[in-house]
Amino acid sequence: MIIFCETDKHVEVPFESLKGVSLENLNLHRAQLENLDLSNTSFKNTNLRGSFLYQAIMKECDLSSTNLVWADLRETNLSNSTLINCLAVSALFENANLENANFEGANIEGANFRNANLRGANFKCVVGIEKAIFEKAIFDTETKWPEDFNIKESGAEQK
Length: 159
Prior knowledge:
By secondary structure, the chain is largely without helices or strands. Helix content is 3%, strand content 5%. The mean pLDDT is 97.
């Protein structure tokens, strides 16, 4: 299978499907992965900078230490995914399902979580949370925030 990237540096992988496979340590800069089922796939240490993951299904993915700068993850299902230490500066998570996602240690400066489902998500020890957008994002009592973060001023809503 070939993963098309808008950099014209396409990446060939030995899989017929990208669900439940290892795509670790790859350069997938500006990869076109919209509307794909990528559930249970490992993207550890992968460069997904500027990638198009709009409406992808990424349940239980491992995105640890992944570069998600400017990635388009709008309306993507990232429930139960691991984003520990990822670089998600200016990433778009609008209307995404991030239920039980773990962002511990991630850099989310300028990331957009508008209208996202953040129930049970872990934002402990993240970098740049004060510059992230949480307007109308939904969280619950299980959502973990940094101790010094003022969730009431963020625009997120507890439901």
